[in-house]
Amino acid sequence: MTIMHRNNSMETKKRKYNNRKELRFKEAIYLIAIIKGLCITARIFFRNLFKWITKRRGAVTTYYPEEERADRSPYIRGKHYLVQNPDGAPRCVACMMCGTVCPAHCMYIEAAEVSADPDIQKGPKRFDIDLSLCIMCGFCVEACPVDAIRMSDNVKTVGYTRKDLYVDMNHLLTWNPHREPFFTDVLRNDFQERVEKE
Questions:
Q1: pTM listed for this prediction
Q2: CA distance 128 to 171
Q3: What secondary structure letter does DSSP report for 168?
Q4: 154 in Cβ contact with 46 (< 8 Å)
Q5: Residue 47 lies in a domain
Q6: Residue 130: enclosing H or E segment and its boundaries?
Q7: What is the mean pLDDT of residues 95-113?
Q8: 168 in a structural domain
Q9: Is residue 183 within 8 Å of residue 153, measured between CB atoms?
């Protein structure tokens, strides 16, 4: 009885795959593919350079702090802010729907009894957003049943440290965009037009 060791049999046999194409030497060093890629890059570069020299519109480059794109979408989602009631309290009822639906888990909310009013059972004791984790998806705005959180069209959320990108409830309440976000008006008009058509 002969016993064949598994290690010896694996060393002598070379696995072959039926669907794998054997590469020739030219294909194996990928030189042709690299040259094709460089030709495409050079062609686009020199075409845009020629357009730039002749003062025609070539590659669209926006020098961001000084210029802003004119073709921004009206549905752009930017910085969050909390809406206040007329008495100055946040409209949020701490239902936790925005934090639950958030795919990035960047919202930290604690509920507490904040009002003596019997109609308002609870409100946020803590409402923090970590903008370094936020993906600006807008799910929190859509999930809010009382329209307490909104997103402005201001996309300038910058900071030198991570602590600068961690905003608390006071910042969300006091930060006020210069104007009402225009995308909510556009959405409202689109919705009204659809309803009128039906």
A1: 0.58
A2: 9
A3: -
A4: no
A5: yes
A6: strand 123-130
A7: 93
A8: yes
A9: yes
* Residues spanned by the domain of 46: 24-61
List Cβ neighbours of 20 (8 Å cut-off, separation of 6 or more): none
Q: What is the DSSP letter of 149?
A: E
Together in a domain, 84 and 177: yes
Structure tokens at 170: 């006071």
Q: Do residues 147 and 91 lie in contact, with contact meaning Cβ atoms separated by under 8 Å? A: yes
Q: Is there a domain that residue 174 lies in?
A: yes
The stretch 111-122 carries a mean pLDDT of 79
Same domain, 124 and 160: yes
User: Could you tell me the two tokens for 123?
Assistant: 């409100």
Q: CA 52: distance to chain centroid?
A: 32
Is the per-residue pLDDT at 7 higher than 60?
Answer: no
pLDDT in tens, 42-70: 999 998 888 878 877 666 677 776 777 77
Total domains in the chain come to 2
DSSP-assigned states of every residue in 75-125: T----EEE-B-TTSSBS-----HHHHH-TT--EEEEEE---S-TT---EEE
Answer yes or no: do 105 and 29 share one domain. Answer: no
Give me the pLDDT at residue 103, please: 94
Q: Any idea what DSSP says for residue 162?
A: G
